[in-house]
Amino acid sequence: MGPIAKSTLKTSAVFALRLAVQAGTLLLVARMLGPEQFGAFAAVAALAVLLGTFSTFGTHLVLLAEVSKNPTHREQVLSYAVPTTLISGLLLFVLFLLLSLLWLHNTALPLSVLLCIGVTETLLLPLFVLPATEQLALEKTAQSQLLITLPLALRTLAAALIMLLALEHPLIAFSWLYMLVAVASLIFMKWHIPNAWPAFNQWRIARKTELKNSVGYATLALTAAGPSELDKMLAVKLLPLGVSGLYAAASRVIGAATLPVIALLLSAMPRLFRDTTHNPTRGKYLINWIFASVFLYGLVLAGLFWLTAPIFEWLFGEQYHGLAETLTWLCLAIPGMSLRFTVGGILMTMEKPWLRAAFEASGMGMLALCAAVLVPALDAKGMALALAASEWGMVVIGFGCLSYINRK
Asked: Which residues, 6 or more positions from 28, have their beta carbon under 8 angstroms from its beta carbon?
């Protein structure tokens, strides 16, 4: 068994834990809030997550690329990555509040909920991602993902505590704990890795050339998360809140199930960064092996969800009647979603961030267009078909990009 296969197995075990954590949080929060409040929460959280991917301004991916090649580059990148993340995150937090109050006003969520979610996703967790990404670059993939799983696991415990106490305003209580567990995760990271972030006197403003290098990765991170988060925001705008909550629950289920694909890509990324530069023949073989594995996994996963969809409706409870049908239609998107993740990851290791950003931005456009056409006629089924169309459209465009690079 090769080193990537071994790393993938270890990372998959961690992702299995992460999958269990995410599934537990999803079930607890969905049952605790009910379809209407869950739909509103999912849309606002999706917006915060989407904007939060831009908070590091791509410096976490620069860190991944540079440390993968030479671990001594960490101080050079982190010295400007931390202040860049704080400045960018603060600006994005303000943007999040404006968009939540103006564009997603129909969610009618309390300001305290917006503040807690916004601070967590645009400021606290982006800082947490930097040292976790460094561990990934050092090929400590399982450790990196265990760290990423920590705030998610604490969030699950928070949701369980709120359900146990049967609080009168569960959403407000969960939002405050949502932020507090992120703070606790940062404290743990500092204890676990004392030099996780450079000292304040080592901070500096990024040079123009450094920002120019990272902005492509920043756009890449934003567009990579876009297709997985935009659908929840579109659903809350185009569907009644109760139906959007049902769709959001089903969408989160298939999103969590594709985690093994991400495990494979994360395990292979340090090797791909090196091989695409120094050993293209070996890199090409590895890419073909990854595509074959991912496509087979996507087909098997879609078949399993097709058969077990009624079980998920039972798990979510009577309030989520109709979830099985929506989940069944979302099965059409699963193989495409898996391949889209793979194409995007490979383009990144080829240091073609703008190509990846372009093909995923086109997918976001396709998603919005298809949703506008299909949802008024087909409701949640239309949203599922729009997602499937955009995922497969991105796969086609992404393969075209890879073919162009190979010919060139």
From this structure: 156, 159, 160, 163
